[in-house]
Amino acid sequence: MGLPPGPGALFSQGPENHVSTQTQSIVTAEAESKSVRQAMRQVRRAEKGKVPTTEGKRAQNRRETVAGYGFLLPWMLGFLGLTVGPMIFSLYLAFTKYNLFTAPEWVGLDNFVRMFTEDPQFMQSVQITLVYVLVGTPIKLAAALAIAMLLNYRNKGSGFFRSSFYAPSLIGASVSVAIVWRAMFSTDGPVDSSLSLFGIELGGWVGNVDLVMPMMILLAVWQFGAPMVIFLAGLKQIPQELYEAAEVDGAGPMRKFRSVTIPMLSSVIFFNLLLETINAFQVFASAFIISNGSGGPAGMTNFYTVYLYKRGFADGQMGYAAAMAWVLVIVVAVIAFILFKTQKSWVHYAGENR
Amino acid sequence: MSTIEVPRAELLEVATEPQPTRRRRIKRKTVNTIIWFVVLLAITAVILYPLVWLAFSTFKPSSEFGQNPGLIPDNPTVDNYFKVIEGIGGTPLWRFFANSLFIAVMAVIGTLISSALAAYAFARIKFKGAGVLFAAMIGTLLLPFHVIIIPQYIIFNRLELIDTYWPLILPKFLATEAFFVFLIVQFIRNIPRDMDEAARIDGAGHVRIFFSIILPLIKPALITSAIFTFIWTWNDFLGPLLYVNSPEKYPLPIALRLYNDATSTSDYGATVAVSFLALLPILIFFIVFQRFLVDGVATQGLKG
To answer: Which residues of B are less than 8 Å from A29 in CB distance?
Structure first.
């Protein structure tokens, strides 16, 4: 085998020649696994030639299916038992009152009504989470793109910087970093005292209602390395000729950025935007540690997931927390849906018409 | 930083120009390169400063915190390290490290086995429902994990597995991190089929092909998955926060919280020292394996 998958190539050994032997059924199955289209072609060819392959093929198919599910068994168990099953269970819980010790009590839409009409903490939590996602993610992606372009300017020596900038992404969500961050931004800490040198007296950021959000966003932006590495890989794919052509047409740096870099990078931007937005909704450990689990000051670090944890596991309101989780799923699904829907108008995939 | 580093094409292009212009060009190029280096070094300094600050601060006595925000300790001491090695609440520090290490190693083993098996099925076996299941697996990549932690907690609570490591390790053996399945699928798809086809003609089944052909070839993907699994598990906070209650079973992130809560007012030095020690294995891992990690992200578009 290993022939180029051109149309007739697979059939040079032709089904007609080796009728219904073991080898032939393997050859048939191989052709099938090459690609769906080839498989269909094969079937059509076999039908036309009236080759009696159906029996052997069915047995082969059955064997493939058994093998497939055999290899997938651990994943299937996890998927059904730890993902799909729990999702259905939590959907049910969302309509109940449940504290882990007594049986769930059906309350209909009460949890959702309470969330949106009589729980100011929930509304505040939604608000600060949205600010964090809508402000933090664009800044993080802009920083990632800017520094990726800077790195792309020169190949030699950029490897060291690429790795250094990536390191924070790897450890940013850890408890250690949250502790460091709190120390950095505390009263008379490194940030406060450096700013004092410039005559800016802000005091500690951690306990300050207005500054704790910027501090959290800075922590997110600090982890720009992961999207940066992906941007950099995307930038390296852009053909240099496009820039040269643009230059010949008299384009300046801004014009080249707008008309070459952005469109050529749009699929990578889409990918990063989707992942980073969804990840930002799920910030937990750093907010939890920085506020000592309280979500303070004045609820300003009471991010959605922190509040969900408090309701579900500290207060034992598991029904309410399940309802909150489903609201988050729906919000994330809507955002993903909108991004996928709008990508047609702004995402350019290589190989399409320009 | 000298003229030698100017790209080839540039040299060829300028070679035909008159002498003075060429020299000026090369000079401008050199100046640009120097600016480039200086700017990037400045960014590096800002980005790595918190980590460097952490490392230096572990040598500050607790009384210095709040008074000396700078890098260099006024009265350097190694007392913090001696203090934290004793541990906290009767549990020695090495115990937390051992717990973290055990969980992380089990997670790596589980993830590699289950993800490689699932990835082989998706990449190489044609069976009914493969497309739908693959799409479902990709779907779980985007699913916020909060929707499953509550019912998962209830299930593990029913099974009386709270305060054991089962809830942290079992999911890894069931390939719940779809990222790694996806990463390995992509890797297998790039391996030419010639060899497994030859093996099949010789009568080898999927099990043989998987173990003797595919497994050795996907080593790079397995290494990347192993490193990421190790680091993510090592850093994981929510999992052990929910499931591990007894201090002698705490992994590092939860133990760290103990230091942070119990001693932050009186003994900041100890907290900082443990924070640094907890990060150290990951930083070492990163320095050793950075190529696998960064290239893994670049090619597969993995999250951080």
So the answer is: 126, 200
> C-alpha angle with apex B184: B278 to B232, nearest 5 degrees?
15
pLDDT, tens digit, 9 for 90 and up, residues A84-114: 999 999 999 999 999 888 889 999 999 999 9
Residue A5 vs residue B75, higher pLDDT: B75
Is A2 among the domain residues?
no
Both B45 and B95 in a single domain?
Answer: no
> B99 and B44 in one domain?
no
The answer on A152 and A28 residing in a single domain is no
* Shared-domain flag, residues B164 and B244: yes
B44 and B189 both lie in a single domain: no
Range of the domain at A313: 111-346
Separation in Å, CA of A251 to nearest CA in chain B: 21
- Chain B residues with CB-CB distance to A157 below 8 A: 37
Number of neighbours of residue B148 by Cβ within 10 angstroms: 24
Quote the minimal CA–CA distance from A126 to chain B in Å: 15
Boundaries of domain holding B39? 3-57
Q: Give the pairing type, strands A96-97 and A105-106.
A: antiparallel
The pTM (predicted TM-score) of the whole model is 0.83
Statement to judge: residues B149 and B91 lie in one domain: yes
Which of B67, B112, B114, B125 is the mutation pick for testing A, counting most A CBs within 10 A? B125
